[in-house]
Design goal:
Layout lengths: L1 H12 L8 E6 L5 E8 L2 E6 L4 H12 L3 E5 L5 H17 L7 E3 L5 H8 L7 E5 L2 H10 L12 E5 L5 H13 L8 E7 H17 L3 E4 L1 H6 L4 E2 L13 E7 L2 H11 L4 E5 L3 H10 L4 E4 L19 E2 L7 E2 L6 E8 L7
Parallel strand pairs: 3-4, 3-6, 4-5, 7-8, 7-12, 8-11, 9-10, 9-11, 12-13
Antiparallel strand pairs: 1-2, 2-16, 14-15
Helix pairs in contact: 1-2, 2-3, 6-7
């Protein structure tokens, strides 16, 4: 894990500096030359729970985008966060940068979070990373704009046209590669046209890997090894080796299920039918939609961003992996030569 953290830092260091880059430029008939230019957000407060790598990733991304970072880790990872922060400070000082560019709040008191959320005059944006209770508290209590990373209630839909071998590989990887990450599939939707033939094989793979299966009545009738799913299962981000399974009559039913239960994070379809693929990709309103790939690719590193602070599931400012570019805003730089407005 430490080597992985170091590799992520090196990957971020190799990224292009976004600050000052032109997003667009155009000229007006009046003589104005207008450019939309990337600038830092400012001071970013990052509140997170148990993953020590967030300390390094968040600091690196914030700095690369020209921001200062205030890090508030959870008590579970405080020791690791202190050690990583000390290394970051040493690197900043060696590079001639202010140590305070990355600050760590190492007080294990929940009231500190409330105080941070009220510092609207000092902090420009808050990025929470953790469970539903943390995210909801931040969104309710913050006086500062929030880039929210909500839960990853991700779905994989196996269409009637799916290649069976691809479907088996993708479903197994999407659930079991790392069950505890936000990009892990929590619900499998499988088309009734292929469920009788394909679901037992998928169940074989998952059970052999140590996954508990919970399904609808039709899924349980096909494979008795599948336990009963409750209504709560369709709304649960397990972050564990548990998968809920629903047999659906077709694409429309799959889209309806996703619309009702998805957290807006990541959804995938496995299909060979181009029309079905395009319909799914256009109509699913999540931050990331995948065709014939595992939901575990929902990751800033896999998107070429070096690392990420989280997956933004809202619609304003940033959506999907929050990398360096997403930690900038923009301003308009307008040039002219003695121009006055008539």
């Amino acid at each position: 894990r430490i080597a992985g953290i170091a590799e992520a830092l090196e990957a971020v260091a190799e990224l292009s500096d976004p600050v000052g880059s032109e997003i667009a430029r155009w000229q007006m008939p009046s003589g104005l030359d207008i450019a939309r230019v990337r600038v830092p957000l400012g001071v970013i407060g990052i509140i997170y729970e148990s993953r020590p790598n967030v300390t390094a990733d968040a600091a690196a991304l914030a700095l690369m985008a020209g921001n200062a970072a205030i890090l508030k880790p959870g008590s579970e990872s405080m020791g690791s966060a202190r050690a990583i922060h000390a290394s970051l400070v040493a690197g900043l000082e060696a590079a001639g940068l202010p140590a305070a560019a990355v600050s760590l709040i190492d007080i294990p008191d929940r009231r500190v979070v409330g105080a941070l959320l009220r510092l609207a005059e000092l902090v420009d944006v808050i990025v929470p990373r953790g469970g539903r209770s943390l995210i909801e508290r931040v969104m309710v209590d913050s006086r500062i704009p929030v880039l929210a990373h909500l839960e990853g209630l991700c779905h994989t839909y196996v269409h009637a046209s799916a290649d069976p071998a691809k479907a088996r590989r993708i479903v197994l990887n999407a659930k079991m590669r790392r069950p505890g990450i936000c990009g892990a599939t929590e619900t499998l939707l499988i088309d009734a046209a292929v469920a009788d033939a394909l679901l037992p094989a998928i169940a074989d793979d998952l059970i052999a890997a140590g996954c508990e299966l919970r399904g609808c009545t039709q899924a349980r009738a096909i494979d008795p090894r599948i336990g009963e799913a409750s209504e709560a299962d369709w709304r649960t981000e397990y972050l564990d080796a548990i998968l809920s399974i629903r047999v659906v009559p077709g694409l429309e039913a799959a889209l309806d299920h996703i619309s009702r239960y998805s957290s807006g994070h990541t959804e995938a379809i496995v299909a060979e039918d181009e029309a079905a693929l395009e319909t799914f990709l256009k109509r699913v309103d999540s931050a990331i939609v995948l065709a014939n790939a595992s939901t575990q690719f929902a990751d800033g590193g896999e998107f070429g961003m070096g690392a990420e602070i989280g997956i933004a599931t809202g619609r304003l400012h940033a959506r999907g992996p929050v990398g360096v570019e997403q930690l900038t805003t923009f301003k308009y730089v307008v040039r002219a030569d003695g121009l006055t407005r008539p």
